[in-house]
Task: structure prediction
Amino acid sequence: MMNRKGRWLGGAAALAVMFIGGCSGISPPVAYYTLGIDTSVTQPGIAGTACSDKGISVGPVSWPRYLDQPRIVTRSGPNTLDFDEFHRWGGSLQDDFERVLKRNLSVLLQSSKIADSRSSLRFKPDYRVELDIRQFDGQFGGDVILDVGWTLITQDAGKALDLHDSMVTKQVSGQDYAALVSASSMAVAELSSEIAAALLVTCSTAN
Result:
């Protein structure tokens, strides 16, 4: 017959196993997200075709340090950032942003000569777009804010043609990360439209 001490040790061991199993079971799987193409804004040729034969280089793009990580950043207050371990970008937000921006510009300007400044270019760029991302985050049930300073530069002369500040605000339609990422994609699409419009003016003037 098991004595009192033996029963106590056995019960403690069972509780320990249950505790460890419970702890290992409460961690949710990690969900991964990517920015997408917002076709409601980036319709083919909506900006025009004056730049279709021009080479355009995107970058360099500078980012605030708080966004240099895989976790999706949200705000719970004006000066409070939250980092979620279980909702992450499916790669680098910086690379994802540049990928979508290039794709948007390619569709808007009907051009296949859009590349980033870090790649080996297959063409000589006529213009370069430099960007300084100052804020790119959002709040559930609130807004995504994309605050960017960007410059159009001629590659030949290395001259800054236009200096711009864009503050894009998009409402987050839900209380989850899917809604947040969708609003973020719409923000990049609107920024793409602003850049495409400026490039169209520049290309039209140069032609």
Q: What stands out?
A: The longest helix spans residues 177-206. Helices lie at 4-25, 93-109, 177-206.
